[in-house]
Amino acid sequence: MDDEIASQIETIELALIKDSVLGFDPSILLVLDDVEIGQREIEDLKSRLGADGFIYLFNIANSAYYGSLKMGTVKHFFDVVSRLGMQYTKVLILQFALQRLARGDHEAENIFAKNFAASVVGRILTRGLGFRDDEARKVELACLLSSVGAMMMMVYRNHYQTADFVLSDEFIEQNHLYLTERMIRRFNLPEYLHEMIMTPCFTLERMGIGLPTVVKLAICAVEWSFRTLDNKLVLRSPQTSPDDRFTPSLAAIVEEQFAAAGLKKYLIILPETTPISQQMN
Question: Are 84 and 32 a contacting pair, CB within 8 Å?
């Protein structure tokens, strides 16, 4: 990458990480890196997060997707962080800030919705392929952040760019991963994200596929669904009654997760008893 392109990308990055734009104090992400941080210090972060971000994290932590049926409802921010994990909490804070930044911007919101859908599909795929839960979480995080650079570029183009620096679709397509990598470095996110997002090839382990491949499969599956099925993730699955909270189907858990993230309009769950061709008409 030449110096001029790198400088342009740095301009985008700096324009979009100011407190007034992201809507929260970015130092929160650095505080959450402290493995010795105490309960009081974590609780004190609430005031620096913003009320809407605080509610968002609570909704995610209290969804069935993260075990609220077995572990009960969380009531304190410390419990939210303990349940989600510090690294995942950091990613969700960053993603929520970007989602808020993209409100009213259809193109950027669409990228965010795809990232979120890929994170859900990636977790399902990883567990279905027999990987451990901690490995599923890595795939989930990588999918969430996979197109952060493209999203930031889209927001910059639509709302902040100047006449002397106009972003083209080609520029975004060719360079968004570089900005994604810069964001991973800037906010000290897990090192494995670099490999899982940036690896361009189909990776194999000794007797199976590698986690970066699962990330790519999830992203491709979501991209296909959005492109061919009305810009949504469309699932067909056995349904569970909304009142049956103690034995929810996987589809019901996914639906709750999309609702908690404010993205329910990007999800359709079809009953398995009717052909898809009839259900989509």
Answer: no
